[in-house]
Every structure is written in C-alpha cells, then in structure tokens.
Amino acid sequence: MSEQGLNRLDDLLRLARASGAESADAVYGDGRSVSLAVRKHKLEKLERADGAEIGLRVFLGRRAAMVSTSDFSSASLTALAERAVAMARVMPEDPFAGLAEPEQLMMGALPDCDLCDPEDPSEDDLITAAHAAEDAALAVSGVSNSEGAEASFSRSEIALAATNGFSRGYVTSHAAVSVSVLAGDAEGMERDYDAAVAVYRGDLPSPESLGRSAGERAVARLGAKKAKSATIPVVFDPRVSRSLLSHFLGAINGASVARGTTFLADAMGKRLFAPGVSIVETPHRPRGLRSRPCDAEGLPTVSRGLMEDGKLTGWILDLRSARQLGLPPTGHAARGIGSAPSPSVSNVALLPGTVSPAEMIAGINRGLYVTELIGSGVNGVTGDYSRGAVGFWIEKGEITCPVSEVTIAGNLLTMFADLIPANDWTYRYGIDAPTVCIEGMSLAGA
Q1: Topology of domain 3-218, CATH
Q2: Nearest CA to 203 among 240, 174, 162?
C-alpha cells in the first residue's frame, strides 16, 4: 500500500475538522483494470480503466453527511469538506450514528492475507486465455456456436482513516476468465457457461478446462423437457447451492434484523439446520476472494462460526446495527467510496457433510438435480422461496434426462431444516457450499 492514499485521507480529515466537523472518516480507492472479450477468434472488446476516488463522512453530534470526489486538487477537497459539513447541519439526527470508540479499533499491523498478485498480465496474456477457453468449448462435440469468452485483471488500493485514530490500507487484485457457448441447432438450442475468479491469476483453473466444462454443460442440456408437478427431493449443484447460503446470510444481516424485515429475526440461538451442519466465516483466508484484514469502520475481522451444529450463533453487524440491537459490533462493516457502512460478510462456507454426491443421488427414487436457477422469487420477510430451475431428472438413483421450464418452491425455514450437505465442498466463489439435498420441495411443471 502506497502512502499517497493515507496522506490524502489525513489531509481531508484536517479540512473536515477545520470546516466544523466534530468527527469524520474518509475512504480512498485507487484502481486499474483491463478486460476483454473474444468471439470466434476475433477481439470484440478491450477496455482499460484507471482512476481514484475519495469519500468523506462527517458528524455533527448524531447528524451525518457523506460526499465523494475524484478531483484531488486543494480547492476541490476544501470545498468537499465544507459541503459535507453544511449538509450534516440540516440532516436529521440518527441516534445510532458515529465512529468506533478507540478501544474497538484494529490494533497493530493488519494481518497479511496475501491479497495482491505482484504480476500484471499483458493484454496478450489475457487474449490468449480467452481464445484458449473459447477454442476448448467449441471443440466439444455438439457445440454449435459461441457467445464469447472474456478475461480480465484488476488491482485496487483501499485506505481508511478516521479522527478516532484509525489509519490503514491494503492492496487487492482479481483475475477472471469466463466462456459461454450454445449447443444444438435451430430445432433445439441450449446455452451454458463456466467461469472462475481468483486473487492470483496463477490460481485460476486452466482456460481449456473452463471451456470444456462450458461445452459439456451446454451439450448435456439438449433435449430438455418439463417434468411433471410433484413433491420431490431436490439436489442443488454447488454452482447454485451457494445461493441458499446467500439467502441465509441475508436473513441474519444486522440491518434487516434491526428493522424486523427478516424471517430469522427471532432465531438467535435456535436450531435452524440439522445437527452437525455448520457455517463458518474466515476473513483472513490467504488469497481469499472476499478476505479483508479489517472492516470498513476500522474494527478487526475474526474467524467465527455463524452456524454451529445447526444452531444460529449470531448476527452480521456493523456499528450502527449493533447499536440498534444493543449488541457488540462483529466487524462486518463494508462500504463504497460514497456510501455509508453496512453489514457484509467475508469468506463464508457451508461445511461439507459425509455423503458423496453420487451416494446422495443414488438414494433418491424420483427427484431433480438443479444446475441453474432463474429469477429472484425469494421473500426475505416470510422466507417463501420460488424460483425457476434447470437441471436433470433423477430416476431410481440415476441422473437421466435434462429438465427445464420448471419451478421449485418451499419455505427457507423448512428448507434449511431439511438440508443435507454432501462432501464435495471446494473454495471457488468466496461464498461456497457443497452439493446439497432438500427433501420435499414442490415442483411445478407439466
């Protein structure tokens, strides 16, 4: 992390104080990225972005205001500080607003999470990767067309400083490759994709393996039919099972709990999943996609169990939601350059069970194996769940024909209680779950 960002934040905080702010914090981001897309051996897109921005939040008692700019001239920053204070004077009071107390802050050096690849790939490197992914997909028998392949790399400096004494920064990088293809002909076509993201470009799977996977997935979907409406077990592929984990995390978000707008508002300490099911968060995972050495309010981040042996252990809290609920903050604040902090998680995993996916499927007489979900029909207040699904029919313990144009439905409380995890967990997205099976879901089809 360069000293430039922290120095700019210190200067801006001094200007805020001089303009009348009682306290303030500021966040700085400086990023550069390159992304490109190819299709059928032609470069279709090449974009570069390079820019820095700074955001300021000021407090007058319990009144707060936020502003941001990408103009770092002295005149602009002076005007920014003055405008923020003027805005705060007319804002309504928020009894839960304010910075962290000094004793709550991250002390000492930030933990090293190895979040930045030291080498930037060239444009040629990215073009080669995108071509390799697309070529491998098109080489799969039955693939008839390509929607293209993309590759990208980005690097960002992030810094936070506040008048309570906190001042830290770190650097992150992200690399990605994706490919999407079509299989079949005018009488019946199917699309599928594969993609990967990593902190270090060298940790990505080979573009050839991503291409083969995308092609094989698309071909496997050919000839899809509607299944008959029924109440059946539903198995979620890891690519979609992580969405169930995201619904759980949204339901224990402290902002929703404080507003009473979550179906888990009264679930603290209660058993929600089967005994043995655990969900853990590891914010300091080396090269983790969602790793962060501290939160966006300067509090330490720590590993914790969010669900232990099926029981909910706590909420995801920033300072404001913690104050609303009368609880200690949990170091979960995240924020953009021009937005206030809000609760958000780092790396989260639904831990694997003991049964393999093959054994799980072998025990199902009639069911559905879901590989893609469509729509967002989830009610966070009631837990009602209804989404379009694509996948494969399970008959007498075996995956048979592809299925599409069906809807699966249930209630997340019942779904969580019935959820059985398989043993195939891998780290890939930052929020990860293994294959899971949920008994007794409603399927609406033919």
Answers
A1: PmbA/TldD fold (3.30.2290)
A2: 174
